[in-house]
Amino acid sequence: MQIADKSHDTKGMVSLAAICAVLQLALSPNLAIGNGHPNFALVFCACIALSRGGAQGVVAGFAAGLFFDLSSSGPIGLMSLLLTVAAYALGSEQRNRMAGDFAASIAIFSVSALAVSAAYSIAMLVVGSANSIIDAFVFRAVPTTFLSIAAFIPFAYFFSRVKASSLSGGHFSRRGI
To answer: How far apart are CA 87 and CA 57, in angstroms?
Structure first.
């Protein structure tokens, strides 16, 4: 028998948000390749969108993007918009894509990470934070994409292996025996 435990799901989402927030504030500024840093707000948004679906993913994407915007020196609202759109695209199927398809989750996240990083880098070029198009793409967008993918892999593994078995109860219930 499968029982939906809503408080357990909410606790998991809040703890994932806390972990990603701490990593975004403490670890992300210290990990850099070129001018690119891992985007843990995107990791949180993608984990929620791929495991819970579009509606919760969109709300999580907006909140994570707003947190990112308020904790960085970029334009406020830009990452909120990008993560909201990314969460909508990632969670459009309304099913748990991470439950057993580890490789597909990483592939889909990789495409969205590149799109979000490229769009953010172009916007930073427009507002004058980047010096050239090469700086925006080669030294910001591509390293940010690779670092975000590397940060997403442990979360995707957890959600595809550990969390999927705990959500199903980890065993089968037999009645009448």
So the answer is: 5
2 touches 168 (CB < 8 A): yes
**CB-based burial, 108-145: b 16+ in 10 Å, e otherwise:** bbeebbbbbbbbbbebbbeeebbeeeebbbebbbbbbb
Name the residue with tokens 């843990």.
40
Write down the H helix ranges in 72-141: 78-90, 102-127, 133-136
Rg (CA), the chain: 17
Integer Cα distance of 22 and 160 in angstroms: 23
**pLDDT, one tens digit for every residue, the chain (177 residues):** 455 555 556 787 888 999 999 999 999 999 999 889 999 999 999 999 988 877 888 999 999 999 999 998 888 999 999 999 999 999 887 667 777 678 888 999 999 999 999 999 999 888 888 788 998 899 999 999 999 999 999 998 887 776 654 544 444 334 444
Please tell me the pTM assigned to this model.
0.84
**In contact, 87 and 50? CB cutoff 8 Å:** no
DSSP annotation of 36 reads B
| Cβ-Cβ contacts under 8 Å for 119 (sequence gap 6 or more) | 82
Spatial distance between the Cα atoms of 157 and 154, rounded to a whole number of angstroms: 5
Please, are residues 40 and 24 in contact by the beta-carbon 8 Å criterion?
A: yes
- Coil/strand/helix, residue 33: strand
